[in-house]
Amino acid sequence: MARVVKVFRTLRNHWKKSTFAVCVFSYGGYWLYGKHCDSVLRREACLVARVRLYLLYLTDYQPKMSYTVKKATVILNPAACSGKANNLFEKNAAPILHLAGVEITIVKTDYEGQAKKLIELMEQTDMLIVAGGDGTLQEVITGLLRRPDQDTFSNTPIGFIPLGSHNSLSPSLHLLSDNKVKDITSATLSILKGETVPLDVLQIKGEKEQPVFALMGLRWGAFRDVAATISKYWYLGPLKTNAAHWFSTLREWPLVRDVSVSYLAPNLRPPDQPPQKHPRPNLLYRIICRLKNYWSPPLEGEWMLLPRKLRFFISAERREQLLSQMQ
Fold first, then answer.
1. Is residue 156 within 8 Å of residue 147, measured between CB atoms?
2. CB 3.0-4.6 Å disulfide test: which of 8, 80, 103, 170 passes with 85?
3. For residue range 32-82, what is the model confidence (pLDDT) as tens digits?
4. Is residue 151 domain-shared with residue 246, that is, in the same domain?
5. pTM to 2 decimals?
6. Is the same domain home to 48 and 153?
7. Which Gene Ontology BP terms does the record give (predicted)?
8. How far is CA 35 from CA 32, 105, 181, 185, 264, in A?
């Protein structure tokens, strides 16, 4: 009993050191618990992959799959997720693919825009895996649809492993969580299961440049311009996003972008409603717009939804959720 009293007395007399030690041990315990949970997720995913390989090659059982994956080409962007994409792929996705008996060929990009050229020169493969973020996916889709044999090559199923900082396509294909490792392993397992879903493709044409293609839409404006400069302030750590917006505001204020949009209405006007006449802007505003167009003519572009759809691997849980929402 005297020893316990002595311990509490020491903690009370050195309360600052005691508080610091408690904080350090609490953070260390939380960090170790997170690493343990990630290891458990990897182990479970690898076990599922091994079971799939056993069922495919050691028994006569044939799983109900839309596609039996044999060879896959992986387009990996090592610069995604602040340079952590290569490590994330090697630890969380590559072992699952190897254990499932998939012969993968990893092609790493060295600079922005290289994925387009690689896809244009790539040979036919059983499936294509994009390991990166939104930028990598957009480059791969653009390179794929620029190929001379796009009619046949576009039938190749595509898998998306979310390794980037922005993964806009992931919510449409997988059930997301707050754990990066779980999202990566779930996306990899959905590729092995082979269920696909067709997705629309948006084509953007300019006056001189070749058309580019997108899946989840098109972002344009001041916030998009600032987002492209965030990486320049890496030395500010967690404040780099705020610094990018702050310095961009100082350089250019107000942050205004002029745009003119024309589109075709999907439906005709009901016959019982008279045509609406929109109010005309005042004379001063029209003069200013004319002067702006004279000194800096706008860049014309054409956006079109292609009739062709690309097939992406989707998780069974996400497919069931989408079907339930449609009913």
1. no
2. 80
3. 888 888 888 899 888 888 887 766 655 544 444 444 557 889 999 988 887
4. no
5. 0.72
6. yes
7. ceramide biosynthetic process; sphingosine biosynthetic process
8. 5, 29, 10, 15, 52
